[in-house]
Design goal:
- The chain contains eight helices and seven strands, in the order βαβαβαβαβαβαααβ.
- Helix 3 runs parallel beside helix 4.
- The radius of gyration is 17 Å and the shape is globular.
- Pfam families: adh_short_C2.
- It comes from Shewanella youngdeokensis.
- This is SDR family oxidoreductase.
Length: 253
């Protein structure tokens, strides 16, 4: 196996792994030798993903986790350490969107739910991953932000607010823990064909959304996960504090 993408023996914890980026990343890491603890608020869904991965011979543990609950994020790390002895990789992927609406119509309850899952959920994950990585003397964390985290998102202001906060957490964490050999980066996808998009946009709407990208299409989940793998590569040891746009050229226009 190419050493660039050889994760043999690495222990990864991934939130939001019942579908989308989390599911695909878990499957790809397992193919490359990683041991996994995967979670999702959708317990049946994440157990099904774990069964699929386990059938290939990979080591995987699945558990329910509401990332807005600090103690449940800690439990993920505890399970990884108890079962596999360490945490090499933390992927804070769980998140939720909200219905498109003008900023002046956003209710406090929408902001509360965005902050609870998309911000606190990332901080809770980072907190416990970092505590373990400090004991080990190394580790890599990847947070999932969005293009809405590095630019404006008309009619998605609460989501944009939360994803901007993920960028702040990522950069601040990278500065604080770089001296401890803990790398912290974020990935910022444009609209991608995961359930978060397909559940509210039919094919016609997806086509219109894709026209805003220079490549004139939406992203495919495998394209995002390919970059996630490279950002987490055991040989990618000097990259930290970066928030990488995977956007079909949107940020270049």
């Amino acid at each position: 196996m190419d050493p660039l993408l050889d994760f043999t023996g690495k222990v990864a914890v991934i939130t939001g792994a019942a579908q989308g980026f989390g599911q695909l990343l878990a499957q790809e890491l397992a193919k490359r030798g990683a041991k996994l603890v995967i979670s999702d608020i959708n317990e049946a869904g994440v157990l099904n993903v774990a069964d699929q991965i386990a059938s290939t011979g990979a080591e995987v543990i699945a558990m329910k986790c509401d990332v807005s609950k600090n103690e449940q994020c800690k439990a993920m790390v505890d399970v990884a350490v108890e079962s596999f002895g360490r945490v090499d990789i933390g992927v804070n992927n769980a998140g939720l969107a909200h219905e498109f609406m003008p900023l002046h119509n956003i209710e406090e309850s929408v902001m509360d739910s965005q902050f609870a899952v998309n911000v606190k959920g990332v901080q809770f994950g980072m907190r416990h991953q970092i505590e373990q990585m400090l004991q080990q003397g190394e580790g890599a964390i990847l947070n999932v932000s969005s293009m809405a985290g590095i630019g404006g998102a008309p009619r998605g202001s609460a989501y944009s607010m939360a994803k901007h906060a993920v960028i702040g957490l990522t950069k601040t964490g990278a500065v604080e823990y770089g001296r401890h050999n803990i790398r912290i980066n974020a990935i910022c996808p444009f609209f991608t064909l995961t359930a978060m998009v397909t559940n509210f946009a039919d094919e016609e709407k997806q086509g219109k959304m894709g026209l805003s990208a220079p490549m004139k299409r939406l992203g495919e989940p495998k394209e995002i996960v390919a970059m996630m793998l490279m950002m987490l590569s055991p040989l990618n040891t000097y990259m930290t504090g970066q928030c990488i746009a995977i956007d079909g050229g949107v940020s270049a226009a």
